[in-house]
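Posted in: Protein Modeling Q&A

I'm a second-year student putting together a small comparison for a lab meeting, and my supervisor asked me to include a predicted structure for UDP-N-acetylmuramoyl-tripeptide--D-alanyl-D-alanine ligase. I've never done this before, so apologies if this is the wrong subforum. The sequence is pasted below exactly as I got it from our records. If anyone can share the structure token output, I'd also love a short note on what stands out.
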Amino acid sequence: MRLTDLAKVVEGKILNIEEDLEVKSFTIDSRSSTQDSVFIPLKGNTDGHSYIEDALKKWSVGYLTEKPLNFKNGILVKDTYQALKKIAIYKRKSIDTVVGITGSSGKTSTKELLNFVLSNFYKTYATSGNYNNEIGVPLTLANTPENTHIAIIEMGAGKVGDIDYLNNIVNPDIGVLVSVGHAHVEKFGSFENIIKGKGEIFNTSHYHVLPFDLLNYYKDKLKKFITFGEEGNIKVYDIKIIPEGTTGKVAYKNQVLDLTIPIFNKGIFKNIGAVAGVLYHLGLDPIESLKVLKEFNQIQGRGKIIKIGNLTIIDDSYNANPLSVKNAIETLNEIPTVKVLVLGDMLELGEESEKLHRSIAKEILKSHIDYVFLYGEETKYIKQELEGKKYVLHTDKKEIANQLKKLENSSPTVLVKGSRGMKMEEVIEYLKN
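Accepted answer (user: helix_wrangler)
Welcome! Here is the predicted structure, written out as tokens:
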């Protein structure tokens, strides 16, 4: 579209248009402005209007504004955020199929896996990073290239109603629920509310994918659905950690695929089960199509393997909740080396935080993990449970890195995990430096 077309979409008034330039992308960060982008200033901790001039200097072709300004190629609107939503809804109409993905854990990995597979069959576009909130979702849709066949949209939620709000923008054809756990229980208020809030992914979509063990919670609202898991329609089983990564079986009816992917993460096969469910709804072979995943590699912070000297680091530092930490412990437990768990706080657990951190300690005690290094206020409860039973140290990130270096001679595998706010990747940075 061109600037004049954009003005019609957002119901805005043109300001100082020097040339009716083509618009190919949108940005809310002046630092990422490009020669074909329009800058959308949003109001948050700072007012984005202060950066309009910066965006134009960095080659943005135009900008939206709530204030009448004299800069070239502006479009005056009542509300820049509402204008962003209008662009997203307009772009959504031109996309053949949209897959909406939510869950307490695993939604980003499922999105990456699905995009990896589907890009072999269609022109796809997927959420960048974790742009999964009320700003990131419309921004993703707004930036969907022309002639995109399938858009894969990650949809996050912190309370009941969040997914329904995003549904009105995304209007997903296929709704995927990857998992339900205690993530964000502080914001949701209760586990029952998490069940309700995540289940909103099924409210507007026509085809549904979900874990078999959650079927009873949602069967009254499901339409055309398929389940995954050990007892699901798509069976996922016999998952093991081997030196090459993670291996397992995925089956549908009489088809069985033995798959090995170069990632240490037992939970990834549940995500692959969800991918198979989407393939089924798209009319693709849900098993044969998965063979390309043997070439899949994980993104930074999501289980990526990093070698530093004699240390093998599994960088799972991007986020953590009880469900994903339990999976991380199970994964690390199966690696046939000296095993080290580096864990930061699981945040946003509210009144259940102490209980849930202590429950993680119980999972560690059932494992063969050799060393546990803890960081943060809430992990003190894990330390209390482990003292005298496991080697445990509760300290700062720099000291954790120092202790890891002392273990180098034993060539350990080190899994690093914690909630996003804990920035546990800093331990890895200390090790590199």
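A couple of things worth pointing out for your meeting: The radius of gyration is 23 Å. The chain has three domains: 3-81, 94-295, 304-432.
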